[in-house]
Amino acid sequence: MFAERRAQQPPAQARDAQLWDLATNEKLQERFLQEVQMAELWLSRGENGMGVQHLSNALSVCMQPQKLLHVFKRTLPPKVFQMLLHKIPLICQQFEANMNEQECLEDDSD
Q1: What is the share, in percent, of the chain residues with pLDDT greater than 70?
Q2: Which residue has the higher pLDDT, 14 or 100?
Q3: Closest C-alpha among 38, 89, 31, 109 to residue 63
Q4: Primary place of residence (predicted)?
Q5: 66 near 84, Cβ under 8 Å?
Q6: Can you say whether the dihedral through the CA atoms of 105, 18, 56, 47 is positive or negative?
Q7: Percent helix, strand and coil across the chain, each to the nearest 5
Q8: In the 8-state DSSP scheme, what is residue 76?
Q9: Angle at 28 between CA 97 and CA 66, to 5 degrees
Q10: Which of 2, 56, 63, 54 is closest to 28 using CA atoms?
Q11: Cα–Cα distances in Å, from 55 out to 28, 92, 93, 94, 96?
């Protein structure tokens, strides 16, 4: 009976990975909400540049960026949405740079 239960449990590495994923997801969600709130604050003050910066930060940590862009298209003023669209290539470059840096760090630890 004990052996059957143990066989049904995921290996320790898988459990650890699941816990890490949950913690990471919580941090990403927290960061996402903070960035959206900061964007709202700046946009309400008429500081479109700062608002767009925080919207792009939110977009970079979002799990479904295409859906978020659709929401932004419907809810943001056209000028602000266009400013955000112009930042997308920079967001992609930053993401790629972060990924390359992470790969280098992983290679160094081997």
Answers
A1: 72
A2: 100
A3: 31
A4: mitochondrion
A5: no
A6: negative
A7: 90, 0, 10
A8: S
A9: 70
A10: 63
A11: 14, 14, 16, 15, 19
Mean pLDDT of 90-105: 73
Task: Determine the 3-state secondary structure of 47 from DSSP.
Answer: coil
Pick the CATH number of 12-109 from 2.40.50.140, 1.20.960.10, 1.20.272.10, 3.40.50.2300: 1.20.960.10
Give the chain's mean pLDDT. 80
Quick check: pTM over 0.85?
no
Q: Over pLDDT 90: what percentage of the chain?
A: 45
Domain ranges of the chain: 12-109
Give the DSSP H or E segment for 94: helix 78-109
Q: Taking each helix axis from N to C terminus, what angle separates 78-109 and 65-75, rounded to the nearest 10 degrees?
A: 160
Length of the chain: 110
**Cα(26)–Cα(46) distance, rounded to whole angstroms?**
30
